[in-house]
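User: HTH-type transcriptional regulator Lrp, Halovenus rubra:
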Amino acid sequence: MTYENLDEKLVNELLGDGRASLRSLAEDLDVSVTTISNHLSELEDEGIIQGYTPKIDYDAVGYDVTAILQLKVEGSSLVEVTETLSEHHQMVSVYETTGDHDIIAIGKFRNTDDMNETIKNLLTDPEIKGSNTSVVLNPAKEHEQFELDIA
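Assistant: Predicted structure for HTH-type transcriptional regulator Lrp:
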């Protein structure tokens, strides 16, 4: 039994198969099922593992338009606008950023009409002082997580 870097190894195993059983994880990592269970609980309690969700191919279910919104926002309203975007179900990522824009949001849409309507509704917020929208032509890499380095 080896516990060195167990948490990192456990996370990496789950990245490969998020539905792996405790028993198979224990076998792969050469530790007991109880050890795996305890470490998983700790990783979840610490917020390192935040859930187990399926990886969705949005194109396959009809959301084949991806838009990147870059927004300039009145400084005092940054949190409010960020929260509004975050609550929108089609926004898959929302970032507060440095540089020319204050917020970058990435959304998935069924078609350009859906995208256009959604963006126009969002841009009615008077706190948004400027915007730039780009449509993704071809995602080279998307929604990927990476394995943790093991010392």
